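Good morning C.,

I know you're traveling, so I'll keep this short. The sequence:
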Amino acid sequence: MLRFSLVAVLALTAVPAFAQTEKEVSCGHQADLTAAVVQARLDGVAERDVPEELAKIATWPENYTAVMVPVIAPYIYEQKRRDLRKSDLRSTTYAQCMSLN
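The C-alpha cells, ready to paste straight into the viewer:
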C-alpha cells in the first residue's frame, strides 16, 4: 500500500512539470514562427507568399502555420522594417505566451 501511495504521489507531482514542458515547447514554436515571419518580411517576401516560404523551413507542426500566419503576418507586415530590425518579437511572443495560463 505504501508503494502504491508513493507511486501515486510521484505521478501526480510529475504532471505539472510535464504540462509546463508542453507549454514551453508550444510557446517556443509560436516564437519561432513569429521570428520566421519577421525574417520573411525583412527578406522582402510578399505577405501572400509567407505560408509557402515558411513551409520550406518549418521546424514546428503544420497546424501552427495554418493557424498563426493569418493572424500574425498582417500585424508584422504593417510594421516598418526599421522597427522590426530594432525589436525582438520572438522574445516578446515567447514571454507573452508563457505568461498566459
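Safe travels,
E.
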